[in-house]
Amino acid sequence: MEQNLTDRAFWKAFWESRKGLIFYIKPNYIFGDLLAGLIKKNNIKSAIELGGFPGYYAIYLKKYRNIDTTLLDYFVHRDLVNQLLEVNGLKQNDIAIIETDLFTYQPEKMYDMVLSFGLIEHFADTKEIIKAHLPLLNPGGTLFITLPNFTGINGWLQRTFDPDNYAKHNIASMDVDLLRCIYTELGLTEIDVHYHGRFTVWLENRETTSAWGKFVMKAIWVIGKTITKIIPFESKLLSPYIVACAKA
Questions:
Q1: How many domains, the chain?
Q2: What's the whole-number mean pLDDT along residues 19-28?
């Protein structure tokens, strides 16, 4: 298996096919509460979002937390980034942009926080992609990684109705014990790895999914939301995300 489960052509086609990319990012954007707590606790002033095109979190952190932010990705469609900045009341130079391969990039500076959202699961070697985050991190800095949880109900839905997209993910990386172990081996401290979110499901190819697939997704969504509203909990079976946070 190759190290990278995707390539530039995949991401170009992926982003150009997506609808609704440009929108106003609200203060309660997902993971925003966790980030706010870390920023306050660790006095974070600078951050870099890896693999984060079109830059939702780089923009969120600049807009709402006044953090000096940078977006680094292998593929960047700058017109889309500029549109997203404009919709959110920011200027083109309000966030820095680096278009490069993370594995060959030689950092020119380091940051108080290094973040990635839905990045590490696209690589065959989970430890190596996490390790690639660390040269950008200041001593004592905060590492914040999230990835989808396809090991429960949402994963079954992906595997059944969107097998092509499912195949682009390293399901083995979606293991909280594995992530804790990797963080420990890399010498990180204050490790916190957990399932996040009560319940939700999605399909990247929803627009082209069959009527039956849409019906199944809707039925699962209603049942799952009802259960977790009555008995709120986060779990491997139902939670949509995994969050892995630590300090250098």
A1: 1
A2: 89
